[in-house]
Amino acid sequence: MSFYSPDRRDLRDLREARASRSGRGPSSRSCGQTFLRDSREGTLAREARFRAWDGSQNLPDLEADEIMDALADDLMAEGDLSAALRRLMDRGWKSGDPTRQDLRGLQDMMERLRQRRQELLDRYKLGDVLADVRRQLDDIEATERSGIERRLDEASREGPVNGPESGRERNRPDNPQLRNMLRDMAAKRLDQLDALPSELGGRIRGLQEYDFLEPEARDRFNGLVAQLQRQVLDQFVSGLSDAIKGITPEDLAANRDMVRDLNRLLQERLAGGDPDASEFLQKHGRFFPGARNLDDIIEQLAQRMAAMQSLLRSMTPEQRAELQSMVDALLRDDRLRWDLAQLAATLDELLPEGLGDRYRFSGDQPLGLDGALEQMARLQAMESMEDRLDSIGDPGDV
Fold this sequence. Notes:
mainly alpha; 2 domains; two-stranded parallel sheet; 4 strands
């Protein structure tokens, strides 16, 4: 079962008509949008964050007369103060004085967000986002092969060591049987390396089961796996990479329980219920820092998982399959992998507009996995802010 949830919006006849934003595929408000609960509508904030007025913000010092002058034409035309204020808020205020700052309107802010988003799409490309992972695996295998060849070379020198010798020569076995055993063991390791599949997920799984002879290669591989787990698995649940690293069977069962308990809560919400998440948070709260209820949990899940889903949706089918294979290899547990896939699918159903957007990059600056996830999160934060600005109906909403 795959973490990737095909975008339901891709199946709509009018999907292209709805894709009004430049550089985007079918329109989506991926994880700052409405979801159903007891037939009531609620909202989820995505990446946008606001802070209280503290006096440090730099705004034009407008006089009452200047505000009235800016409103005068609309007031005279329609006599509706609220509508006049709304239009002023939309278009902003021009000071006409080079020594004074203009007040940007909502439309100007939204246009700047669109331009910034398009700049990112025009700068980067989603080519081979896993190229760096492949390169590191190549280097690790080369280091292991070099260590094996060195041991074979040492074992081929027969006879006792006389006079001053290096540390490596002191470790050279003098017993012919030991030398033969080393040759056989080294040959077996080389055969195992030669038999590794070229597909990335299979290659990682093969090296996870491989018994390294070269300590440097082993340490570098373990470090790469830990890094990938942080980049990929924590996109699903905070701290999941740490939770599955070096775990006992009992720990793994506890993590499975967390995902299954969460799936039950989301399924109940999807069915129209209003489940109490207090028991879940008491038991598994460390995965969702600061969450107080199920809405907070869903918001955190949506914020984390949308970047990965957007990356998957923006890839070609071949790229998507390779990334999915790598994620499967990193999980190393079929039950947990299945439960996480079900979690992604359930959350995608809870959010009517779906989880994640498709982006069409057209630049020439390649992105690695970490950079691609970072840019997806930035693009979604911009869209979340644009959605919020676009939803403002009157000055009281600001």
